[in-house]
Amino acid sequence: MSLVVVGSVAYDTVETPFGKHADLLGGSGTYFSLSASSFVAPSLVAVVGEDFRADDRELLERHGVDLAGLRSVAGKTFRWGGRYRDDMNGRDTLFTELNVFETFAPELTPEQRRASCVFLGNIQPSLQAHVLEQVESPHFVAADTMNLWIEGAREGLLGVLAHVDALFLNDEEAQQLTGKRSMVLAARAIQELGPSLVVIKRGEHGAMVFNDGDIFYVPAFPLEKVVDPTGAGDTFAGGFVGYLARTADFSPMNVRRAAVVGSLMASFCVEGYSVERLKRVDPETIAERYTSFLELTRFPPLEL
Amino acid sequence: MSLVVVGSVAYDTVETPFGKHADLLGGSGTYFSLSASSFVAPSLVAVVGEDFRADDRELLERHGVDLAGLRSVAGKTFRWGGRYRDDMNGRDTLFTELNVFETFAPELTPEQRRASCVFLGNIQPSLQAHVLEQVESPHFVAADTMNLWIEGAREGLLGVLAHVDALFLNDEEAQQLTGKRSMVLAARAIQELGPSLVVIKRGEHGAMVFNDGDIFYVPAFPLEKVVDPTGAGDTFAGGFVGYLARTADFSPMNVRRAAVVGSLMASFCVEGYSVERLKRVDPETIAERYTSFLELTRFPPLEL
Question: Could you tell me the domains of chain A?
């Protein structure tokens, strides 16, 4: 199935306990589409400035990402800077320079309008709605969101959610959106807003998948070293939605497979800065890590 | 296999966002032995004061907990008070009154000295060592510990760990003990100190089990409402070790079963204050929830 993703393409400056790296290729659209590109040829709708590097464009193209919807305009590419705390879980945003993203109004090409799968990256709900209006008859629409929109653009977000099949968010955001402390109750409340599939991302603790009445728990892969968690959530969503688009199978068991694929792609993402590790993933390493997930979680029936 | 547990029996005062309850039956020895009692008849080594309620003694006896090693002495029973934060994860200790626990020196009965399984609850390492000296030739020794001893009694703790087969601790404690941020590296470092089985407890995120080279991830059961997390860790250990003592099977796959049993017992524990829910658990509810864990975590092989 064809897959269109709308999101940011950015240059990130990331500080971790291991060092500081500036102007790394990042952004939700980048991580999502590079992750999804292991399964389908996603089409990216985004904007960059004149400073966007030819190398980075080539990297995406080499991975089969369709860049017909990547506009290049006068000005600088979106920039974000953040610092991770010692435990690599919490992070503080140091700066956000919207630059060319400030006036971004995503316009889909005729081909993109006929997409069967759509991922609305974490951008303001009015832009997510603007994209949805352009897509003719999508089979599956997934979205991401964040505290900023839950607080500041709640009505717009609720309008989008009514037309969304799957929502990706973290546990704090789920609590903020619904007022429910229990993720079971929060997911149920979100399902009543529209999405029948609610994916609660929990960072190093994996994710919980609420798919209608089906509940599935996928861990994060236990790694010896997390180098840079930036983009893990979008990489997770890219693997998840990319796998569903590839298989065109939305049965509960295949949605579980997709969640495992999402988690394993995220595990590659955090093993390197930016997309360094992610860009070197191949079908064999994916299949190997999937097997590792099976090994990590299997246990036999009870004997008493 | 026979199972002896050394730990505290306490009266807890617990404040949660839902209310405050005083003088609830608690303590690591209580939670562990009540949880283990679903699988074996554990023998409890502990001390209580003159104020220990006959009801509470009867409750433990009714569940098959052997109280020959429960000393009753002049003075008041150990008391602990804590307040849970809004998200029910973090908690602050409001008071600790050691009372009769202050002069507690665990003495095992002749029968207890012949125990094949021993659980050293979270008490000071010198007391854990004192228990170990008394046990003749245990097949399996498990222990719990906490930040207080890692910081303040490190040498004593390391001495105990050299004689321990399994260590239960949370991720913060594992990091504090080893200086490793990655749980994979922390567990490996702990294994070098003695225990071949390292169980990292992660509260609402479940637990990671490092059993020699085998790594297993068990989630916490997704609940609509967590009433009181007090004792969840000891209940987890009680189910885990109780199940191993019952089955006398320490193979990797049975250790995985034991971890699931531990997590499911903990899920019952947090559904009520004190031992209110735990004391009503029966083999059928255990088997049902075990099946729910299988459902929660299973996924098919990859198809691409």
Answer: 3-297 (3.40.1190.20)
